[in-house]
Amino acid sequence: MTSPTPGHAPTLLLVDDEAVFRERLARAFRERGFEVSTAGSYDEALGLATKESPELAVVDLRMPGRGGLELVRALHALDASTRIIVLTGYGSIATAVEAVKLGAFNYLPKPADVDDLLLAFSRGPGEAAQVTEDFQPPTLARAEWEHIQRVLTDCGGNISEAARRLGLHRRSLQRKLQKYPPAQ
């Protein structure tokens, strides 16, 4: 179930505490014909899933309060046929294994876009993405730059808030932003 069929809009529950990221993904799924519900917390997501069990769910691992793994367990208990993907910026093998044990269909690291998620839904349960021979991972400097830009965008350009979220002093962040982006 990777794309809608004529006359049927798959239901998707999108759960992430970062509102900008959540709404950006929701809009992209809606543009592809999905019926999307969004939630920013465990309680909100469970309330929506209890009213109408979604066919698909994308769940952030780390959220304030009860986290994504607890939500995976609850959603799987509600309806074992719901295909759940755990999405996180704090990935590790241990949490990926735990998520799949609790009922997640798959696990993806952030940043992921709607195409990455659709591909993950189309693969088998727990099946990792295929890495091509010509794949060149970004340099550490480039990955840092992209992460800073993503956080800054999520903060609406507010450097003080972005610095707080990144655990940096505001002036340190300003110095990093003055540099040109590193080469891929």
From TrEMBL:
GO terms for cellular component: cytosol; protein-DNA complex. PROSITE patterns: RESPONSE_REGULATORY. The keyword Transcription applies. Keywords: DNA-binding, Phosphoprotein, Transcription, Transcription regulation, Two-component regulatory system. The keyword Cytoplasm does not apply. GO terms for biological process: regulation of DNA-templated transcription. SUPFAM superfamilies: CheY-like, Homeodomain-like. Residues 11-125 form the Response regulatory domain. Signal peptide: none annotated. The modification 4-aspartylphosphate is found at residue 60. GO terms for molecular function: phosphorelay response regulator activity; transcription cis-regulatory region binding. PANTHER family: REGULATOR OF RPOS, TWO-COMPONENT RESPONSE REGULATOR ORR33. This is Dna binding response regulator PrrA.
